[in-house]
Fold:
Amino acid sequence: MKQKITWFSVLALLPFAVLVIAFEIVPLIGMILDSFQSDNAYSWVHYVTALTNPYYFKGILNSLQISLYSSLIGIVIALVASYSITQMPKKIQTIMITFSNMTSNFSGIPLAFAYIILLGSSGVFTLLSKELGWNILSSFDLYSWSGLVAVYVYFQIPLAILMLYPTYSGIQKSWRESAALLGASPLQFWWHIGLPVIFPGLVGTFSILFANAMGAYATAFALVGGSYNIVPIRIGALVSGDAISQPHLGSALAVILGLMMIGAMWFNERMMRRVRRDLQ
Structure:
């Protein structure tokens, strides 16, 4: 049945629409137009530079690599953790999901500061391990690639738990009982039934984690400043750098980053459609 749109619903939506247009649509259009500007003419030169210059291309590869590793580690840990949560009483499940929701929002500069206090050069755990004569953290450098992956994994895990937790509801208890009655082992049940059911949700969650890591800026900048070459930091340096400012090239990099994130979100939407269809 066709739903009637009332004037009240349109007026109620108006403030949100104004905010979206003023702070998302207009800046986005301005950024896209700016990325094609070169010597008062439109050109693809900034995109060519972003994709062919070894320095910027290395930044794209570093971003892809960090996003891939942090998403893989995060989703493996979240896969086991979210399953464990579903096996607990409902009250504990609610507490754990609330806790995951809260920790998923702990990111950016506060998260980087927390890691510096704990695992930095003069961090609590770093000094404690030296005092006790342990060499656990001697080869770990928080201000390096491995340090960035460790911090990224932290904010990937609770987000992945929140997204994977509902997918387990698609597995009916009666399926396990039927499989057991037919002589299937738990491993055989998960390989032939459980994993195919949660696989679309797993892939969709991975794509969200990947996009989440690709766009992370504040955490990385607070931790390594401009010393590590990833796309968000390069965009920030090109737009507001002290030495050299190239906002048009920064806009082109931002559009490329946005397209990669849109691709990940599109893939997630396709996978989640399959999850919703399986849950019906």
